[in-house]
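Reagents: none. Just compute today. Acetyl-coenzyme A carboxylase carboxyl transferase subunit alpha.
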Amino acid sequence: MATPERRTFLLDFEKPLAELEGRIQQIRELAEENGVDVSEEIRQLEARANQLRQEIFSTLTPYQRLQLARHPRRPSTLDYIQAITDEWMELHGDRGGYDDPALVGGMARIGGIPAVILGHQKGRDTKDNVTRNFGMASPGGYRKAMRLMDHANRFGMPIFTFIDTPGAWAGVEAEHQGQGEAIAYNLREMFRLDVPIISTVIGEGGSGGALGIGVGDRLLMFEHAVYTVATPEACAAILWKDASKAPRAAEALKITSWDLKNLGILDEILPEPLGGAHSNPLKAAESLKEALLNNLDELSTLTSQQRRELRYQKFRQIGVFAEVPA
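Predicted 3D structure written out:
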């Protein structure tokens, strides 16, 4: 039976599956108590559960994928770092007086290769989310990220960035500290870096908050992650003055990995375990590590000039369209 903690985090479309799994567990416990052999019935019910799981997760709507991307148990930047690195040392501070907990980074060794890894960090519960500002980085966070990327460039280390934020912090204090300038500076400076840069959307990629660490040679994205110019709720509130129309906005915004792959923005979709990355974080981490190392091998065959040109052309081609004569 689903634990109280698991039931707390169940999404609406997951409930039929959780109920069936709960029934299977109840039958198994009753059979053990009474010494009854129900192995055949259990086998049939488990086959039905697997079929139902496949049906649910193969037909998700864009808004349901957004809910998965926001799942409280979904692996975070630090979870992936712990799972895929041989060594890890977090570095702190923007050298301007602030250390933003919503954007973490440091030096690591992955597959024996020294690298700099940085990314947005959400919390696990309300208290942790308040501390991490729900993964919404401040200007100091983006300046810290740029400091770490300059460090990687100076010592010839590849850069891996993990994107997972609803957007940059939009508070008045952030504006006072130069939020727009900090993000714009990162966008410009990342184009000049000589080392390979691989960005991965691990959860929710929102607006300029995501782009502030998202200029790379390759853009990877987990199957159920989303990447969008604005949250569907914000889009619905702007267009229709009704945030409840967010599912309709999610359809129109083309936020899913498959949409972005078709539009030529995304380079590779990383498969997730059936049930989402939170259902088997270690398997998701294995997929991420393999993709990072494979893409790094390919990028390492290019010169720094070739990589900069590749990076430039990648972003120049985003949004290109052709008009068809009437």
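The CA atoms of residues 74 and 246 lie 21 Å apart.
Action item: order primers for follow-up constructs.
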